[in-house]
Structure formats: C-alpha cells, structure tokens
Amino acid sequence: MIRNIMVPVRGDGKGDNVLAHAAVIAKRFDAHIEVTHCRARPEDLLTYTMAIPAFLKEQLIESAGKLAESEEAGLIEELKGLAKNLGLVFSEDPTTKGGTVHWTEEQGKQPDVIKHHGRLADLICVPQPDRAQNVGVNTLKSALFLTGRPVMMCPKADKVSENLGDHVAIAWNGSLEASRAVRMTTDILQEASKVTILSAGSGEPHGATADDLKAYLASRSISADINKFNVRDNAGASILSKCGEIGADLLIMGAYGDSHEREVMFGGNTQTVVDTAKMPVILVH
Question: Which of 4, 52, 66, 125 could disulfide-link 22, Cβ–Cβ 3.0 to 4.6 Å?
C-alpha cells in the first residue's frame, strides 16, 4: 500500500507542480507526503578557483547561511498555502487519515538527501528534467539509481486531474526493469478503472510475454487489456503515441535497461520518454 510519498524540492519553481501530482495520489491512498528540501551547505557554494582570505570566507559563509534560512522560511509558507489549496492537511503525523504533508529540511548534496529519505518511500515524485537548462536531471537520476523505489516523473501541467491513475498503461517488454515496475506499482494498478498492457511483440528473449503479464495481473484481481503495436523508429516515441491513442493518463515502465549514460548519448527508449512525455510516468530501474 502506498503510505509514504517523497517530494524532493530545491526552490527551482517546479515544486508546486510536483506536489499537485503527489497530492492526487496521496488523497487516493490516504498517504503522507514528505516534502524534502535539500539545503546546500554554505561552504559548498564557494568557488575554490581563487584564494579567499579567511575573514572574507567566514563572512560569505555567514551571508549564504542567512540567505538559505530566508529561502527556507519562504518555501515553508509557500508549501502551507499550496497544501491548503490542494486539499492536503499539514501534519507531521503520517498515521493521520487522508492526504497529509509535512516539510523536512536537510543540509547536504541532493543525491545524498534523496538516498537518505527515498529508500523508505513508497513513491518518489520528481519534476520532468529539462536537459537544455540542466534542471532536474540529477534529481531524477538520483531517485532512480540510488533508492530502488518507483519514481513518478511529473511534466508541467496547468491542472492535474483528480482522476490521475484511472487508466494506466504498462509498457511491457518482459525485461527485469519492466517486471519490477509492475510489481512495485500493484497498488496503483488495483485502484485503476482500466489497465492496458502495451507490447511491441519483440520483447526480451525468454522474457515473460504480454499474455503472461495479463494472467499475473488477473491472479491479483486486476483486469487488463493487451494492445500490441509496431515500433516505427523509437519504441519510447511509439509508446507515448499509443498512450495518447488509447487515452491513458499514467504510464508505468521499466527505466534504463541500457546504462543511463548510453541512453542519454544515443537516445534510448527511456530517454525519449523522459525528454518528451506530456503525461506522468512512473519509472523503475
């Protein structure tokens, strides 16, 4: 059961959109959202390309610390306002019924903070990265590769539908990553009104077929349809196109069967989805 949702934020203006996506899931599952702010250590903000006198270094660190405290206070007030508008209760007690949210502050580097708080989360919600601006790339990568948990990538949306997760599509190729994605999102699949298995028919050799997956889901009282399609140029692009055709509002898929670096460099299926998706995608590595 989804009970704990992590939302890492950095004051980059993307947190409100991610929280709106997380709120829909939290209210559906009576889950608790932990908004985790990664606060950089003042000394990490200093450049070491030139020598800095000790007294000036101390002044810069003190000034950076005060600025960080001011930013944190502003973010907390913003969070409280957003939580109220989204129908969330601001509470530090995760056992409270209904969608709840609270703020956690931790100093350090983003990958370390995500690793610490993410490994015991049932779901981690992050913004869709903008590779051109180099924003959000490390957040997604850290969540996927350092926690072992399902990660929901949230593209920018004017309004997040309260019905998010009603029609779930599963990108299935029989791979280890795809099977882990299904197993780790069973709660979401059980709550969906409709589940569609998308299969290109050329999955991993000796891997489970779409029919095998349908039978597996049926044993857990999840009814699913199979939609087979032909891949044109890139499987990731074909999957997103098919999601649009069938009206799915959430995609579940295994992520980075090839290495992250190789997919980024050569444009793999996962990277295509990460770069171009207009719908929320739950990724599992």
Answer: 125
Instruction: Please choose, from the candidates 47, 73, 72, the residue with its C-alpha nearest in 3D space to the C-alpha of residue 61.
Output: 47
Domain 167-284 fold:
Rossmann fold (3.40.50)
CATH architecture of 4-154: 3-Layer(aba) Sandwich (3.40)
Confidence (pTM) = 0.88
> CB–CB of 171/252 below 8 Å?
yes
- Measured CA to CA, the distance from residue 47 to residue 51 in angstroms comes to 9
